[in-house]
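Predict the 3D structure for this chain.
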Amino acid sequence: ICSAMLRSPGRVSRAPRAQPVPAPGDRSMALQMLNDIIAELEFQLQGAPAAAGAKATTPAAAPQAAAAAAAATANLPAPPEAKAAAPDKGSKYTITDAKLVVGLLERVWPHPDGEKLFCEQVNVGEEEPRNIASGLRAHYAQHELEGRKVIIVANLRAISLLGFKSHGMVLCGVEQLPDGSEGRVEIIEPPESAAVGTVVEVEGLDGGQPLSESKMAKTKAFKYIAENLRVDAEGSVAWRGHRLLVDGVALRSPTVREGIAAEPHEEETGMASG
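Done. Predicted structure below.
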């Protein structure tokens, strides 16, 4: 053993030793050989003992070991490619898919079976007024709503809310509290001069044809649209930064800032569709 070693001051070198060639696909042997190479190189460079349990492999033997490791891994199957993230199915819907119009609350009365609901008769410029139920009783008195102009989401399919058929939604600014609950709820106000039935425009976006009521219901498009409908720091209502306008005037919430633009959550209004 000693005759096979060369001595020099402060440095010990080991004679090259042939490395066994692992069988194709033998990953564990290939990895062990690579670890041996690293340990021996550290030994040669630092003059320190190789890592415990590492087999001696000299630099001269490194090419042979590397070739053996490559042979061992050559036939291993490639790792599967990561699947592409599924596209956000709501990303194809925009605020222009919703039909938002100016409405007038002509008549308002308490829902007989929903303590948080008002029933409203709303003129949206059609031949007949619409019936709409809103979860506003905790936020407004009846007389504060009658005769008031509002913004209506007008292409939602009619649903039954505790036996009252509601055909549309009153758009509100909703304060978000630090714990995630809702604070103030305020009606989004169009300009006082706006005519009933006026269609809301979106700043910076070309208006397209709104989705039909049936498609809105089938795709749940308004759910995705509403996720990006916000009240900004100045009280203006915007969708992804595009302000909503009527006659060139921004729609606003009177006092809600940095909130959402929607209606109170269904669980807070006692709503149940059927």
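DSSP finds six helices and 17 strands in the chain.
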